[in-house]
């Protein structure tokens, strides 16, 4: 099964919910008028896309309908897909790994699939011929380090770890030394699952950033926030909270398979202007792909 097929299969619940409702609107109205657009707007809002983003999409669609004189169902649907795609294409989705070494800092709350995502990203980089080191800087939970080690081994990456409870920044420092020592291309740093109301954890994140900036000031750096797509509107508030504490360069979306809340992706990107860089739709090590806005929109409408 190719990735688009996996994506389409994984997003099936979102598509069933959204597509069915949109088709019902088309079958109810004989012409594309204001009442039709109001109904369509309500569907988008109820599909976790969010109020402001839904209003923007419908306003843009209204303008296009008038300008291009759209009345045919397929033409209107195509325009709707294009408006969603325009929102998702907010920036380049490729990783900035221009230097050797480069650093990827991975953040996010507990349970979103952070460790799994690191393993999958490390595997992608290894498949591209890059040597990867993983820093196990979530030292608050021994289980987190054990899980990360399993994924790192699967991906063929070297892991730098310490005993439970040590200063996470010291693990990152050691990992940077090891990265330089073996001439690795990329250092991926795992961090503890941080909740935005836990000030000491956010302070720890700033400390890790300080160490990276001091030891590798010229390295290309990505800060990837992992988000559980199944959490719906809560995901938007998570992104906003982390955005206040870190210079997030991209999002990694997980657990979109089996949820009807996939529409939240559009709201997240529109409200935060941060691109989705990876999307995961499965448990296998190769079930993660670079985000493609066109494929994503096709998969839900």
Which properties best describe this structure?
301 residues; alpha/beta; 8-stranded mixed beta sheet; 12 helices; elongated
Describe this structure in words.
This protein has 301 residues and is α/β, with parallel strands linked by helices. It has twelve helices and eight strands. It has helices at 3-10, 12-28, 34-49, 51-68, 73-88, 114-127, 142-155, 168-182, 199-215, 233-243, 264-272, 293-300, and strands at residues 102-107, 132-136, 158-160, 186-190, 221-228, 250-254, 276-280, 288-290. Strands 3-2-4-1-5-6-7-8 form an eight-stranded mixed β-sheet, sandwiched between helices.
Output the radius of gyration.
21 Å
Flag low-confidence runs: none
What's the rounded overall pLDDT mean?
A: 88
* Structural shape: elongated
The arrangement of helices and strands along the chain is: HHHHHEHEHEHEHEHEHEEH
Instruction: Determine the strand fraction and express it as a percent band.
Output: 5-15%
Task: State the helix count.
Answer: 12
State the separation between the terminal residues, measured CA to CA: 20 Å
| Largest pleated sheet | 8 strands, mixed
Structural class: alpha/beta
Strand order of the largest sheet: 3-2-4-1-5-6-7-8
* Oligomeric category: single chain
Helical amount among residues, as a percent range?
A: 40-55%
Please give the number of β-strands. 8
């Amino acid at each position: 099964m190719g990735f688009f097929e996996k994506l389409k299969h994984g997003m099936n619940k979102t598509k069933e919910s959204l597509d069915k409702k949109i088709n019902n609107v088309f079958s109810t109205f004989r012409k594309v008028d204001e009442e039709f657009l109001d109904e369509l707007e309500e569907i988008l809002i109820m599909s976790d896309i969010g109020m402001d983003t839904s209003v923007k999409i419908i306003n843009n669609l209204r303008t296009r309908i008038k300008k291009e004189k759209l009345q045919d169902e397929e033409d209107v649907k195509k325009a709707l897909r294009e408006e969603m795609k325009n929102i998702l294409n907010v920036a380049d989705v490729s990783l900035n790994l221009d230097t050797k070494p480069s650093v990827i800092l991975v953040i996010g709350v507990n349970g979103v699939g952070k460790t799994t995502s690191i393993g999958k990203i490390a595997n992608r980089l290894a498949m591209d011929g890059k040597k990867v080191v993983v820093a196990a800087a979530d030292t608050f939970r021994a289980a987190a380090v054990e899980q990360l080690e399993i994924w790192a081994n699967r991906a063929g990456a070297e892991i730098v770890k310490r005993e439970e409870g040590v200063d996470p920044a010291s693990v990152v420092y050691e990992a940077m030394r090891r990265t330089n020592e073996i001439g690795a291309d990329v250092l991926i740093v795992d961090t503890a699952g941080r909740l935005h109301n836990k000030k000491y954890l956010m302070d720890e994140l700033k400390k890790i950033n300080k160490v990276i900036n001091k030891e590798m000031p010229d390295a290309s750096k990505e800060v990837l926030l992992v988000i559980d797509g199944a959490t719906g509107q809560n995901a938007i508030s998570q992104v906003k909270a982390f955005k206040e504490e870190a210079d997030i360069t991209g999002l990694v979306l997980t657990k979109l398979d089996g949820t009807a809340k996939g529409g939240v992706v559009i709201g997240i990107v529109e409200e935060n202007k941060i691109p989705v860089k990876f999307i995961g739709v499965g448990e296998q090590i190769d079930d993660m792909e670079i985000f493609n806005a066109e494929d994503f929109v096709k998969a839900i409408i």
